[in-house]
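Fold sample X.
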Amino acid sequence: MKTFRIDAAARLVIVDFAGVVTLSDLRAGLDEYNQTDPQYSFLIDLTAVEEFRVASEGIRLIAKGCCSGARKCAVIAPTAVAFGLARMYEAHADNCVVAVFRDAAAARQWLGGGTVSGSGKADAVSAC
C-alpha cells in the first residue's frame, strides 16, 4: 500500500509505503512522482513496511528509470531489509541523486540542503 502526497512549501513529493509492498506498488509510486514538477525532490518512506514482495531484479529495473531529471531522492529505510533494498535502488539509480537514511529527520535535512552529521545519515550520497 502507498500514500502519495505533495508538500508544496517544501517542494517535496512524499510516498509512504506500508504493509506488504510489491514491485507494482513501487513502480506506481515512481510513476506518479515522475509526473510532478521536476523542481520537486522525492522522499520515499519505508518505515511502515511489514514485508517486501520484490525480487532484486525488480529493484534494479525500477531504479533504471527512477527519476526524470537530475532530482534528489531520499529513502527512509529503518529496517535491515528496507535498508538493503534501498541501497540496491541507490546503486542502480539513473538520472537522480539518491541517499538512504535510517531516520526521517536526517532525510528531510538532506533534501532541504542542510548537512547531516553523526549517525543520522546512514551512507554516502550516490550521484547517478
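Fold sample Y, listed below.
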Amino acid sequence: MLAAEKYNARLTAGLGVLEETQQLLTLWKDGMNGAALTTAALESGLFPGSSARSLKNMIGDAFASRYVIDGGSPATLPKTILAEDMSVVFRQLCFVFTCRAHRILADFVTGIYRPSYAAGKDVISDEESLEFIRRIDNEGRTATPWTESIQRRVASYLTGCCADFGLLESGMKKVRRILPCQTRDACLEVETHKVRFQSAAVFWSVISVRPYFVGKFGLIFF
C-alpha cells in the first residue's frame, strides 16, 4: 500500500463521473475555482437531472478535488485530451487523477485489483472489497470509524469506480469480471504541460505502463 494516511469517504460523492467530467471541462476556464464552476454548471443547463445541492457536492468532492488543484493544471490536461477526441486516453488520465485524489482507490487497485489480475483471477467481488474496507477500518486507517453501512457503500463504490475506468466489468453487479487495462499512445504536448505526482512509480504500476513519448505527444510524470 501507499504511505499511511487517513482515508475518507469522499469517493462516494461520485464514481468515475466521466460524462460529468467531460461536460464540466467544457465549462471550466483557467483560474476558475470549484464555486465558480458550480455557478457556471447551474447556469449552463447541462445537468437538468441534478439538484443544485447534488451538483455542488459532485463538483466539490469529485471534480474539484481531482482537477481544480495545483492552480488548475490537472484540469488543463484532460481538457487537452478531450479536444483531441482521444476517449481511451482521457479515461486513463482521469483514472490517474482520481487515484491521486482518493488514496483509498489507489490502494485498492494496487492491493486488490493488481494482485488479482497478476494471479490470473477472473473476478473481484464486492465482498472482497468489503473485506479490504473492514481491514483498513480495523487498522485505524479511516479518519473516523465507519459504520457497516458506510463500509458497504465505500466498498461498492471502489468496484464501481474501477468499472468506470475499465478495470472491471460494468453494470450493477456484486461480482465483476476483471478486464485487462491497456494504455494508448499520445496524450498531450509535453512541452507545455507537466504533471507532478508524489508516488508516480506506484501509479504507473497500477496500469502496468512506464512513462513514454510518441513524437511530439506523450504523458510525462516525474
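Sample Y note: The two ends are 20 Å apart (CA to CA).
Also: The CA atoms of residues 89 and 184 lie 6 Å apart.
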